[in-house]
């Protein structure tokens, strides 16, 4: 069946970006035509039509850092530890659907337990579940007792063990390798956030083995030493990139330049709760902390957007709320939308598949009430999501 989706305006994500009274023709999961509504309607009179006056059509959004196996409740880790895999999978299917409710048509899952996100990915791809396209890492590599050890990715630090651990993820069908290069926030009795968990040489082995399997590497790194080592090792993305040292923030210009020169992207990993940070660490530090992202962009480093959905209160159904941070930092709306669509697709190796509204790409679309180019928060007013050609009506329609 052909679908004809039309709205008062359409932002395609390309250079000639805005189409008044725009329409998209969808056939067998692909975008087959894009243009003025009248033209497309004439060319496809039999298509099933969805028309949205007062709305905007955009490329489906890409949340580049989520954890489907965590439930975003008050105690996500305890909930995970208390759940068997079957129960966990039910919750993950529900959260995958919540991502669609928010107009998110692609998520990158950067750490699950037992490859559960890979199973959800495959079930969505087979059409057994309703959900976004999922890129999944499986259990993140970490040291014994290290950050997120409870996801099952603890590894010995000798070369053979590291290579075997990467190869196992490739066998499991992972789309990417995730390594906890530094400590993190949520794991009791593990290294501090600024402390490195792996040496530069160990990260190099992980990157080398991942390349042999054709897999990109996402490095969780809060610590400046870990960021420096991850960049030198040639990872694909640095997650968080918070520049922490033992005595506070420690931004390193030469490392930023190295990231720009080698095309390493940063994924921020900040949920809609970003404005609460000042109350916790003080407004000054919070400002510097958030400013690191504009500093990266100004230096020419690609920044993509993830929310770490699954962590406490970091919900799957409000991606738009997280984007407010970038507006607060002074980015214009079109730039923010590109970061959450075409630039994310490029960074994740999906640029020929999704991220723009152009013929030949998969039909990943979101229709929102209003005009997010004029008012970013309109992005939260999702009327319809189309993921890989399949329409999804948001359940908690605003
Ligand atoms: Zn994470």
TrEMBL record:
One Pfam family hit: HUTI_composite_bact
Keywords: Hydrolase, Metal-binding, Zinc
Superkingdom of the organism of origin: Bacteria
Aminodeoxyfutalosine deaminase/Imidazolonepropionase-like composite domain segment(s): 22-47
Keyword Zinc applies: yes
Any one GO molecular-function label of the UniProt entry: hydrolase activity, acting on carbon-nitrogen (but not peptide) bonds
Domain Amidohydrolase-related: 56-389
Protein name from the UniProt record: Imidazolonepropionase
């Amino acid at each position: 069946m052909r679908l004809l989706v039309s709205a008062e305006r359409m932002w395609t994500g390309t250079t000639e970006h805005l189409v008044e009274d725009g329409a998209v023709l969808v056939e067998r999961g692909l975008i087959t035509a894009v243009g003025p509504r009248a033209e497309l309607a004439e060319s496809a009179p039999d298509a099933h039509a969805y028309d949205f006056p007062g709305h905007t059509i955009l490329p489906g959004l890409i949340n580049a850092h989520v954890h489907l196996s965590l439930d975003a409740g008050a105690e996500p880790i305890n909930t995970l530890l208390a759940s068997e895999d079957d129960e966990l999978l039910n919750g993950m299917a529900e959260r995958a659907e919540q991502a669609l409710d928010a107009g998110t048509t692609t998520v990158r899952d950067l750490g699950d337990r037992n490859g559960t996100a890979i199973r959800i990915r495959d079930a969505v791809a087979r059409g057994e579940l309703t959900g976004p396209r999922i890129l999944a890492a499986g259990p993140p590599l970490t040291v014994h007792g290290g950050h997120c050890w409870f996801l099952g990715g603890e590894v010995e630090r000798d070369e053979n063990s590291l290579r075997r651990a990467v190869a196992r993820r490739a066998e499991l069908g992972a789309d990417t390798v995730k390594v906890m290069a530094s400590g993190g926030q949520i794991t009791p009795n593990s290294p501090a956030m600024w402390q490195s968990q792996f040496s530069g040489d160990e990260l190099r082995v992980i990157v080398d083995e991942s390349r042999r399997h054709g897999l990109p590497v996402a490095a969780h790194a809060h610590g400046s030493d870990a960021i420096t080592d991850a960049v030198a090792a040639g990872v694909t993305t640095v997650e968080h990139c918070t520049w922490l040292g033992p005595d506070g923030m420690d931004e390193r210009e030469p490392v930023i330049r190295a990231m720009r020169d080698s095309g390493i992207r940063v994924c921020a990993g900040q949920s809609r709760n970003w404005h609460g940070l000042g109350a916790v660490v003080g407004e000054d530090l919070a400002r510097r902390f958030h400013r690191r992202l504009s500093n990266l962009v100004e230096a020419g480093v690609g920044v993509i957007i993830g929310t770490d959905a699954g962590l406490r209160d970091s919900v799957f159904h409000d991606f738009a709320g997280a984007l407010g941070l970038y507006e607060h930092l002074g980015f214009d709306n079109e730039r923010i939308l590109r970061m959450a669509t075409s630039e994310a697709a490029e960074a994740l190796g999906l640029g020929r598949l999704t991220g723009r509204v152009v013929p030949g790409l998969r039909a990943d679309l979101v229709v929102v009430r209003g005009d997010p180019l004029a008012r970013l928060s309109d992005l939260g007013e999702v009327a319809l999501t189309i993921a890989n050609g399949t329409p999804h009506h948001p359940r908690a329609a605003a």
